[in-house]
Amino acid sequence: MIEVKNIRKSFDGVEILKGISTTFEKGKTNLIIGQSGSGKTVFLKSLIGLFTPEEGDILFDGKNYKDLSDEEKRDLRTEIGMVFQGSALFDSMTISENVMFPMRMFSNKSKSEMQDRVDFVLNRVNLVDAHHKYPAEASGGMQKRVAIARAIVMNPKYLFCDEPNSGLDPKTAIVIDNLIQEITDEYNITTVINTHDMNSVMEIGEKILFLQNGVKAWEGTNKEIFVTENKAVTDFVYSSDLFKKIREVYLKELEG
Ligand SMILES: Nc1ncnc2c1ncn2[C@@H]1O[C@H](COP(=O)(O)OP(=O)(O)OP(=O)(O)O)[C@@H](O)[C@H]1O
Known about the structure:
- By secondary structure, the protein is an alpha/beta fold.
- The protein contains ten helices and ten strands.
- Helix 3 crosses helix 4, helix 3 runs parallel beside helix 5 and helix 4 crosses helix 5.
- The model has no long low-confidence stretch (mean pLDDT 94).
- It binds adenosine-5'-triphosphate (ATP).
- This is Putative ribonucleotide transport ATP-binding protein mkl.
């Protein structure tokens, strides 16, 4: 579980995060949504320690990040998996080497133990026979699976995904969403996803945090987002006619 308490972050005197508090539960896919510029990336980067908020607390399973020693911070980093926007694979390494990379950096496992773990996670993301390929030889969807395999290879407690569906076709995006949700549930990971994909919101939004201009404008589940009357949410999520219609059908079904 990650607890966020009243975090504030400014750049050059301009406040970007204006006192955000929330809780992300273990075993759940937690989504952050909001307009471009609302502060989603700054928020995510603050959670993983790339930005230091001026105020507020971030607790990882009860441990306040601020109070950790440098060594404890290093240990915490090994418990965090990250799926970067655009996958961020190393072009000069094979898929197998890419996935092994975090273990080579941060673990004392033997070569054969590492290879066994690579085989296991590549199998888990349904990538068999791809070990010796290079990223350039893989499709966008395959690259994303490799990025997920690399993110979970160290058995993380926390998984952060920045726009995991960007650049993917809708069908592949659903496959990736489902994979992230299954892995989150199976390994009881606290997963936080930055997304613009309203389909993900509807499908895997077990908890949704809606940011607007650096504040939490709403939070709830993908069931609650259908029924909320919060104007900021409805203006944003139901700006497309398609999602407006889906909402109408859902609300009618609830009535009937
Ligand atoms: N390193 C930085 N220095 C100064 N300002 C920054 C920095 N990073 C972000 N900002 C500002 O913070 C605001 C929020 O940016 P952020 O990238 O978090 O938005 P976002 O919601 O992730 O947008 P998008 O959906 O387009 O990725 C923007 O006004 C941006 O210019």
